[in-house]
Design goal:
The structure is a single chain. 51% of the residues lie in helices and 19% in strands. The chain contains three helices and four strands, in the order H-H-E-E-E-E-H. This is Type II secretion system protein. It is found in: Cell surface. InterPro entries: N_methyl_site, Pilin-like.
C-alpha cells in the first residue's frame, strides 16, 4: 500500500519548469518597461509641481515687496527663501513688471537628480487648473 502512494506521486518535469520560467520572463519583459515609464512620468510631474511652487513663491514675493520687482531670481539670490518650504536643487524665474502688471517667464527647475525642465507661466497655470478641476475628491 505504501509503495502505491509513492509511485503515484510526481514532481514537475523539466519541460513544465521551463514553461513556468518562460511565462515569468514574458511577464517581466512586459512589466519592467511599464514600471519604468510610470516612474519617469512621476519624476516629470514632480518637476512640474516644483516649478508651480517656484511660480507661486515668486507671486507671493512680488505681492510682499513694497518696491517693483523685475529680473531673474534663482536659488542663490535667496529672495524666495521665505516662500519655499522645500525648494528644488536649482531654479530660475524671470519677473517682468509692465505698468504694475507682473508676468513670470523662463521658469527653470532642476531636481536633486540633475534633471532640468523649463516651463512658462501659462502652461503651469493650465496644468494647475486641469488638476484641480479633474480631481476625484468631492470636498464634502
Amino acid at each position: 500500500m505504501m509503495k502505491k502512494i509513492v509511485k503515484n506521486q510526481r514532481g514537475l518535469t523539466l519541460i513544465e519548469l521551463l514553461a513556468v520560467i518562460v511565462i515569468l520572463g514574458i511577464i517581466a519583459a512586459i512589466a519592467v518597461p511599464a514600471v519604468n515609464a510610470i516612474m519617469n512620468k512621476s519624476k516629470e510631474d514632480a518637476l512640474a509641481v516644483e516649478a508651480r511652487s517656484v511660480l507661486n513663491a515668486a507671486k507671493m514675493y512680488v505681492a510682499a515687496e513694497k518696491t517693483p520687482v523685475t529680473g531673474a531670481i534663482n536659488e542663490t539670490s535667496l529672495a524666495l527663501k521665505n516662500y519655499l518650504d522645500n525648494p528644488p536643487a536649482r531654479y530660475t524665474i524671470t519677473i517682468t513688471n509692465t505698468n504694475g502688471d507682473y508676468s513670470f517667464s523662463n521658469i527653470s527647475v532642476t531636481n536633486k537628480d540633475g534633471k532640468t525642465k523649463n516651463y512658462n507661466q501659462v502652461d503651469l497655470e493650465k496644468k494647475e487648473q486641469s488638476t484641480t478641476t479633474t480631481g476625484t475628491g468631492s470636498g464634502s
